[in-house]
Amino acid sequence: MDQTSSTRFSLTWVLNLFGTAVGAGVLFLPINAGMGGFLPLVVMAVLVGPMTYLAHRGLARFVLSSKQPGSDITSVVREHFGKLAGVMITLLYFLAIFPILLIYGVGITNTVASFLENQLQMPVPPRYILSLILIAVMIGVMLLNEAVMLKITTYLVYPLVAILLGLSIYLIPHWNGAALSEVPQAGDFALTLWLTIPVLVFAFNHSPAISSFALSQQKFYQDPAQTDKNASRTLRCTAGILVLFVMFFVFSCVLTLTPQELAEAKSQNISVLSYLANKFDNPVISYFGPLVAFLAIGSSFFGHYLGAREGLEGLVNQLRDEPIKPAKFKKITAVIFLVTLWIVATINPSILGFIESLGGPVIAMILFIMPMYAIRTVPSLQKFGGKLSNVFVVVMGLIAISAIVYGLF
């Protein structure tokens, strides 16, 4: 295998994983992360890279630990933990991802409707028609083969990266010292950090695509040692560009707005781009803001769709004597997801914060805790044990879970 095809393959996956991670969470991250001032933000920027890389590497290694090459995450769970635990964990995996898919169905409808009405001054079609067309187009892309779907996701990510970077630079002249002058007390500092970690987990999460990613690496490289080495390198690059682009965007937004304005954005329940567009009444932000939201939701939708389909397929097949063939299941899930997403997007519920707050701890359990537990208990994974990085992943996972329990009560 030549180096060029390996590099191209890795780059395609870096962009695909980046696209999966950069969704709705990133557009709300500056609000949650910046309200406590500048110092907690610096600590978050230091923590989030290792957190993201080590947790996703652990999950990829877990997927690749099966005795049967080509086993997806739901099969590996059943193989290592038995049938009952397998069903429970597969259900958790599905519940971590599917609600986010519902968020994206609502989000894409709202973004396009708002753009048609406010920026293009066009009449908006009835919501039930608009949502059906948008969701049908996105699910239609998912029914294409994996190579085409990866290509489309990759093409969506290029403008997303460019516009995120462009907006971050565009805001520099508007930076003020309000966030820098906000020096929190030690207790407030710790509380801000504690309560923002679940938002970081949510905003940087690309776990729905990790099972497909790991199997794709296995198929491409064949040799297990080579697969692990290259998968780790790809995940390291993904975490690096995520920290670089997303945290620059977060810093730029936080330095542009005061903590009071960020709190106001939170109370209005709008993304930071919507707030900036309203604050500056500026055509650049007015047009590029919805475009970023559209690209972020579009690229992230594909990774979450793959994960949700895999979870549902694993769940159904574990409860049946005779598994449904993958090609048939693809069509069944397309219909189920189309109908469900369409109904939810038409109703337009205001439960997004509630779903996100429940999605966070489940993601943390699947992404941070389960692979580390497997490293201690599964013989084929024990070679990865005894490392300080594993302790770090477990601690961050437990903090994410505990912070959301605190938020709920």
Automatic annotation (TrEMBL):
<feature type="transmembrane region" description="Helical">
    <location>
        <begin position="12"/>
        <end position="31"/>
    </location>
</feature>
<feature type="transmembrane region" description="Helical">
    <location>
        <begin position="284"/>
        <end position="308"/>
    </location>
</feature>
<feature type="transmembrane region" description="Helical">
    <location>
        <begin position="37"/>
        <end position="55"/>
    </location>
</feature>
<keyword id="KW-1133">Transmembrane helix</keyword>
<feature type="transmembrane region" description="Helical">
    <location>
        <begin position="193"/>
        <end position="216"/>
    </location>
</feature>
<keyword id="KW-0769">Symport</keyword>
<keyword id="KW-0472">Membrane</keyword>
<feature type="transmembrane region" description="Helical">
    <location>
        <begin position="329"/>
        <end position="352"/>
    </location>
</feature>
<dbReference type="GO" id="GO:0015293">
    <property type="term" value="F:symporter activity"/>
</dbReference>
<dbReference type="InterPro" id="IPR004694">
    <property type="entry name" value="Hydroxy_aa_transpt"/>
</dbReference>
<keyword id="KW-0813">Transport</keyword>
<feature type="transmembrane region" description="Helical">
    <location>
        <begin position="358"/>
        <end position="376"/>
    </location>
</feature>
<feature type="transmembrane region" description="Helical">
    <location>
        <begin position="128"/>
        <end position="148"/>
    </location>
</feature>
<keyword id="KW-1003">Cell membrane</keyword>
<keyword id="KW-0029">Amino-acid transport</keyword>
<protein>
    <submittedName>
        <fullName>Serine transporter</fullName>
    </submittedName>
</protein>
<dbReference type="InterPro" id="IPR018227">
    <property type="entry name" value="Amino_acid_transport_2"/>
</dbReference>
<dbReference type="GO" id="GO:0015171">
    <property type="term" value="F:amino acid transmembrane transporter activity"/>
</dbReference>
<feature type="transmembrane region" description="Helical">
    <location>
        <begin position="237"/>
        <end position="257"/>
    </location>
</feature>
<feature type="transmembrane region" description="Helical">
    <location>
        <begin position="155"/>
        <end position="173"/>
    </location>
</feature>
<keyword id="KW-0812">Transmembrane</keyword>
<feature type="transmembrane region" description="Helical">
    <location>
        <begin position="84"/>
        <end position="108"/>
    </location>
</feature>
<dbReference type="GO" id="GO:0005886">
    <property type="term" value="C:plasma membrane"/>
</dbReference>
<feature type="transmembrane region" description="Helical">
    <location>
        <begin position="388"/>
        <end position="408"/>
    </location>
</feature>
<dbReference type="Pfam" id="PF03222">
    <property type="entry name" value="Trp_Tyr_perm"/>
</dbReference>
<keyword id="KW-0997">Cell inner membrane</keyword>
